[in-house]
Specification:
The chain is an alpha+beta fold. The protein is about 40% helix and about 25% strand. A six-stranded antiparallel β-sheet has the order 1-6-5-4-2-3, sandwiched between helices. It is globular. The mean pLDDT is about 90.
Length: about 140
């Protein structure tokens, strides 16, 4: 899936977090890991799985970087990770398994993901020290 598809569906996609701060309203949220995960689940409930996406760039990592991640994650994630190891795409429709995997990687700061919601447009960047940044609606031009 391409970024343009998420944008066409109403999502907010930008390459650098500074762009988000410059062009969108934002909220910095610092909470426990379970509370942050709950925020993602609430956004999925509001938007539906069909309007929820994630960037996940495991397939773009060098083989050595992929191997380092495989060494630190529980074995039960290996089969799912291997499905993405040669995929150059980074944007994917969010599924329950992909949410659990990307959140585990993000929560442990092994590999960060960004979550995109299109029905009620919102983008969530994180997690850095139990902090997410939630971007929504465009800033008013003055």
């Amino acid at each position: 899936m391409k970024a343009e598809e998420i944008i066409r569906l109403g999502g907010l996609v930008f390459d650098r977090i500074e762009e988000g701060f410059d062009h969108y309203e934002s909220e910095v949220i610092t909470k426990s890991s379970p509370e942050l995960y709950q925020i993602l689940m609430e956004m999925i409930q509001k938007n539906g799985w069909e309007n929820s996406f994630v960037d996940f760039y495991f397939g773009r990592l060098l083989k050595e970087e992929q191997e380092r991640i495989l060494q630190v994650v529980p074995v039960y994630w290996h089969d799912i990770l291997k499905q993405y190891e040669e995929n150059q795409e980074i944007y994917y429709p969010l599924t329950e398994n992909l949410l659990k995997l990307t959140w585990f990687l993000t929560d442990h700061e092994y590999l960060f993901s960004t979550y995109y919601f299109c029905k009620e447009p919102c983008t969530i960047w994180g997690n850095y020290n139990n902090t997410l940044v939630k971007f929504y609606k465009k800033k008013e031009v003055t």
